Amino acid sequence: MPDLSARVLELVASGQATSRTEIAQLLGAAPSTVSHVVAQLLDHGILAEEGTDVSTGGRPRKVLRIGGADEYAVAADLGGGHARIGIVLPGGALESVANVPFALADGPVAALERLAALLEGLADDRGRAGLRGVGLSLPGPVDVQAGVVDLPSRMPGWNGFPVADWLTNRFGMAAIVDNDANCMAAGEQTVQPAARRQTITIKAGSAIGAGIVIDGRLYRGSTGAAGDITHVRIDAAGETPCSCGNTGCLETVASGAALVRILREAGVDVSSTADVVRLASDAHPETTRAVRLAGRYLGEVVAANVNFFNPDAVYLGGILSTLDPFIAAVRSQLYESCHPLMTQHLAIEPVSLGADAGLVGAGQFALQRGLAASLEELATPIPQSTTRNRSVRV
Question: Tens of pLDDT along 94-147?
């Protein structure tokens, strides 16, 4: 029952379930089967239970949690010029969160050396005994199984670099890397109502990405590229060259980088997405118009996905999602372009975790990988020679 055990751990570690009843409901599994799996995990100390939760009837329910009270992961959400780092606890709580300089352009070895030193400092301050994994959210396509960045357009020198293996060797434990939009989607899922099981999370920053959750779990697709809407072609982009080498992609008219280019061509003094956000927040007319158009273009592409996927919610993250005109334009386009059945109960809102969503997701992935490694160790058969030796001693 290793797959079921891993799913039970995933739900408890992420905070989506705290009781056997909730686990059985979310997995659609028999309560007796779930109770058996939970009992095994409790016996091995991987899970623990404490106190009671308010029940809707019958006996009070024990609250399940990850076994060690001090277990945690260190994680980082990387951008082009900065990283958000912190300690992630089971259930998604954060400690020691900080923004630090980080230069992707320095290449993987130099950049990761500096980042690892910062993460080690967090672990040393909290105590290494509880550290269970290291998680990294990266602004580019990621092959999660191989732990490498795969053909990134904005990460020169990183293509094919074994990021996960490098971190594993440095820390001596499980490390996982994933795309930033995927991490944001997974992080947001930990704090949203359990009824929202089908969601699309958009990260709208210097570039654009999307994370897809199906039946409460992140969906990566056959090659790990699910949600890469930034390179969908859109009529409004014409033949504008894109960083992917193609022309007319959504990124060229709706991303932060596109807004910087468009506004500079219009004579507005901006040099970064942060400048665009500052001017739009001050109701600068030209910038506000450009932001609204970007939101509308993004809404066109997302609408096709909503009509196809019929999600419970669309969450908007990234720095552009802090702008009300941008959110309003996306929402308006979805209502205009989607079938009424698709938007009848559709939530369209900013990510509730804000800038921490990607950090929480990366940390949760690392915790789950570390706990899965513990399960694998328990499932490993004892070699025959060891068994014979033990029987002789007894």
Answer: 999 999 999 988 999 999 999 999 999 999 999 999 999 999 999 989 999 999
Separation between Cα atoms, residue 91 and residue 176, nearest integer Å: 18
Phi first, then psi: give them for residue 10, nearest 5 degrees.
-60, -45
Annotate 189-228 with b (16+ C-beta within 10 A) or e (fewer): bbbbeeebbebbbbbbbbbbbbbbbeebbbebeeebebbb
Range of the domain at 54: 2-66
CATH number of the domain encompassing residue 107: 3.30.420.40
* Whether residue 163 sits in one domain with residue 78: yes
Q: What tens digit of pLDDT does each residue of 351-393 get?
A: 999 999 999 999 999 998 888 877 777 665 545 444 434 333 3
CA dist., res. 349 & res. 312, Å (int): 11
- Tally of CA atoms within 13 A in the half-sphere of 32 that contains its CB: 0
Spell out the SS3 assignment of 242-296: CCCCCECECHHHHCHHHHHHHHHHCCCCCCCHHHHHHHHHCCCHHHHHHHHHHHH
**Are 8 and 34 contacting, i.e. CB atoms less than 8 angstroms apart?**
yes
pTM recorded for the entire structure: 0.87
Please state which of the ranges 67-76, 82-91, 114-123, 201-210 shows the lowest mean pLDDT: 67-76
54/80 same-domain check: no
- pLDDT of 61 > 80? The answer is no
Among residues 350, 228, 212, the alpha carbon closest in space to that of 301 is found at: 228
Q: Tokens 């990510």 correspond to what residue? A: 351
Report whether 268 contacts 287 (CB < 8 A). yes
